[in-house]
From TrEMBL:
UniProt xrefs under Gene3D superfamilies: 3.10.50.40
PROSITE patterns reported for this sequence: PPIC_PPIASE_2 (PS50198)
Protein name, UniProt field: Periplasmic chaperone for outer membrane proteins SurA
A family per Pfam: Rotamase
Length: 457
């Protein structure tokens, strides 16, 4: 079944959310060329409409075409929600923003191959500039989501409402096609560096620290020794605040130093660092760091591979279940306590549409049936962790027309979503009357579903 415009609009990709960073605020009475609409203190520009239209058409593979007026109405809806989230004192934590930013960066990196290519593709100076823009974007996204949750927190559906919703779709011949989906569990073994290798890295950093304290250039030492990919551009130097999307250990150390002091080596998910504080300006810290990662030998990698091969053999021989093996052996903290269940990073649900999953995951499981184990695979994170893993296809459903019994939970979700949309529509009708709106001249002839043109009456 063709994807609806509403669904496409609600699932605008993370990458395209960057364009929201251009939606700034201004005095509502100020006239600016290219402004399509002012909603409260938020504006939508003509260029924003064009950009989002292109994204909708791209995501639908050209199957959905949307007019400028339709696109504008969707953007006005989002801006109305963001405006009233601020009025209603909706709270968004820095931890929530940082988590979204990290997932966005991971998504970008998968799409483009490296952080450097992401920075280049979007025209930012460096990865930190990109993160700042993403933090602003994701804060607004969270405000919108939380305002929607506030509006619909008391909305629920009864079994009878679900049945009537399904029956209505069936009578109109509009039952959705449920795509093929899979549920996946994984077992991961990590190849860790030896203690001797860790000691070598820590001692090397201590030696570099002493040399810098004796007059050597931190920047030069960083360029020669640091494994931070950005060192060639910035010499290891960053300006950060406590809200900057840096790892916890880095920020805590940076804010504990005195000016010109160099830290002892600290450990993070990326390796080991030494950090020097150069300057304090208000809540900002100008710091430099050198990152070194302990190397993992080929022998250790082979040892890890042989270990997981033994575990897989025990699972296939029935000596241990996959779930028991995960609990006993797996070293992936995110999935170990859930039997290895892999959550969909895009939907935060425990299932993947077979044709819409991370590109590195699909080839590992595409030929599997329910109950099958994948081949053992090697993986490496951007933090430098190296590991071997195996995946169990816990469940698999084929593409089919929705069935009330088989897809009851999904139909419940659909019915609830529709009821929530109706509640938000009621809220929108009321809030439009309470909110300053100013349509640009080019859009005053648009036909909208809601009364956005109240000022033109």
């Amino acid at each position: 079944m063709m994807q609806s415009k509403t669904k496409i609009l609600k699932n605008t990709s993370i990458a395209f959310a960057l364009f929201l960073a251009g939606l700034t605020t201004l005095n509502a009475q100020e006239k600016i060329d290219g402004v399509a609409v002012v909603v409260g203190e938020n504006i939508v520009l003509d260029s924003d409409i064009d950009k989002f239209k292109q994204e909708v058409e791209l995501r639908s593979e050209g199957k959905v075409k949307i007019s400028n007026c339709e696109m504008l109405e969707e953007l006005m809806q989002q801006k109305l929600l963001a405006h009233h989230a601020v009025i209603d004192s909706v709270v968004v934590s820095q931890a929530e923003i940082d988590g979204r930013v990290d997932r966005s960066i991971a998504f970008f990196t998968q799409e483009y191959g490296s952080e450097e290519k992401v920075v280049e593709a979007y025209g930012f100076n460096d990865i930190e500039d990109l993160k700042k823009e993403l933090a602003r974007v994701q804060k607004e996204n969270l405000l919108i989501e939380k305002e929607q949750q506030k509006i619909t927190e008391d909305v629920d559906v009864t079994p009878e409402e679900i049945r009537l919703y399904f029956k209505g779709l069936e009578e109109k011949g509009e039952l959705p096609e449920i795509p093929a989906e899979v549920v996946l569990n994984q077992l991961i073994l990590k190849a860790e560096p030896t203690q001797e290798e860790v000691d070598r890295v820590v001692n090397k950093l201590k030696e570099i620290k002493k040399e810098i304290e004796n007059g050597a250039s931190f920047k030069l030492k960083a360029i020669i020794n640091s494994e931070d990919p950005g060192v060639a551009q910035n010499g290891g130097k960053y300006v950060i605040t406590k809200d900057s999307p840096f790892i916890k250990e880095f920020k805590e150390t940076a804010f504990s130093l005195d000016v010109n002091q160099i830290s002892e080596p600290i450990k993070s998910a990326f390796g080991y660092h030494i950090i020097q504080l150069h300057k304090v300006k208000g809540n900002q810290r100008e710091v430099s760091h050198i990152l070194m990662q302990p190397q993992i030998s080929d022998e250790k990698l082979q040892e890890t591979k042989e270990e997981i091969e033994k575990i897989v053999a025990e699972i296939k021989e029935g000596k241990i279940t996959f779930e028991e093996a995960v609990a006993k052996y797996s070293e992936d903290e995110e999935t170990k306590n859930s039997g290895g269940l892999i959550m969909n990073p895009y939907t935060q649900e425990p299932s993947f549409e077979l044709t819409r999953m991370p590109p590195e995951l699909y080839p590992r499981i595409s030929e599997l049936n329910k109950g099958d184990l994948s081949d053992i695979f090697y993986d490496e994170t951007r933090e430098g962790e190296k590991m071997y893993g195996v995946i169990l296809m816990t469940d698999k459903t084929d593409n089919h027309t929705a069935d009330l019994v088989k897809d009851y939970v999904r139909m419940q979700q659909f019915a609830l979503a529709k009821k929530k949309e109706e509640e938000i529509a009621k809220w929108t009708k009321q809030k439009i009357q309470e909110t300053y709106l100013k349509l640009g001249n080019d859009y005053k002839d648009c036909t909208f579903k809601k009364d956005w043109k109240k000022e033109n009456k």
